[in-house]
Amino acid sequence: MLGKTNIRIAPNKKRPPDYVEYIDGTGTQYIDTEVTATGVKLIKFEVDMSVPSGYPQSMWGPSIYMKRRNSLSYSTFIDGVYNGYDTDVSAVPRFTGTLECNVINKTWTRTNINNSNAPTQNGTLPSDFADFSNLPIYIFACNSETGAIEIASSRLYSFKIYFDNVLVRDFKPCRDRHEVYCLYDEVSKTYFYNIGTGEFSGGVSINREVDYVEYIQSTGTQYIDTGIVPNTNTKVEIAFQATSVTSSESWIYAVAQGTAGSFRAGLVSKKFYTSNGFSYSQSVTTAYTVATGACAYNQTLPAYLFSQRENNSIAHTANSKYKLFYCKIWENNILIAHFRPCKDKAGNYCLYDEITKTYLYNNGTGEFSGGERVW
């Protein structure tokens, strides 16, 4: 991600930024806000963050580093220190607050809303404090004449910058469409990316009820119990793609109970299995395929995905290596299940049923992988 440029986009109601709770820096990532405060009389920062562990580190600010230490950074926010670090701020928890600097009067006022260890405080700027220098303000680092210094290992929840009481930046943590954690500015409608090394990590999505993905993929050890017992009024539509084809049986959806017959979709001897009423949209077994079928026998056990429920056992899971794009199940022509691939809040690939509003998880071993997020 080194050197990635900031990207401006037009507002899009169909695909808004995917906001996340926070982004985390590890000490090598930082962001250029592309704003300088030269000539500004009143500078205000409104932040929600967790401070770095250890010091010296700077959560934000520019500095005339070679001449004097005039940075506006997290240390100022915590204890009013400009020139040096005489307080270890690593024990200070997440806090929300503001830091307002009057460049003309050489004064500053700090208000921390949720940090009892650092209440409202006023102070005086150094007598030689200039207009913040002509350097752009960095986040997760201090910008100096020698480049980024004191890059912070910290967590950021939100960051706003006001110049003379005008909001010029309103940063919110997010992920772009390529899963890259960054900041989105609501003012300029711009994604702001890491220009250091490595990558930011981040929290879960906060503006999407379900984090859908294109598909989930099995490796031969995962399967899901649908919880639905098919009968002669059951119809199924399932979209899938085989990622491995062998001479053995492999199933994307299956239940088999001996004399009660079977209801299953998948492969046998490298061909689609069609003897139980399922039909397939493709003849090529490794292509994206939609299978549709109606159950001819009343079953007594629920069907499995990525495996076969066979009497009281599980069969053919090891050969069942598929991508699953969706699965719909009808009872008496009423849709009773619509399973869609997704990630849960903990980042686990699974299925979400849009009818019951529940997640369905792997009942086997290992983990599913998955495709890109979809909107």
Low-confidence stretches: 10-14, 64-71, 73-91
Termini separation: 24 Å
CATH topology of the largest domain: Jelly Rolls
Q: How many separate domains make up the residues? A: 2
Average pLDDT confidence is 80
| Total count of helical runs of at least 4 residues | 1
Shape: elongated
Radius of gyration (CA) equals 28 Å
Major sheet size, sense and barrel closure = 12 strands, antiparallel
Number of strands: 33
Indicate the CATH architecture of the largest domain. Answer: Sandwich
How much helix is in the residues? Answer: under 10%
Structural class: mainly beta
Task: Walk me through what this model shows.
By secondary structure, the chain is mainly beta. The protein folds into two domains: 7-208, Jelly Rolls (Sandwich); 216-370, no CATH class. It has one helix and 33 strands. Strands 1, 2, 3, 5, 6, 7, 8, 12, 13, 14, 15 and 16 form a twelve-stranded antiparallel beta sheet that branches. A hairpin with a 4-residue loop joins strand 31 (349-353) and strand 32 (358-360). Mean pLDDT is 80; it is low at 10-14, 64-71 and 73-91.
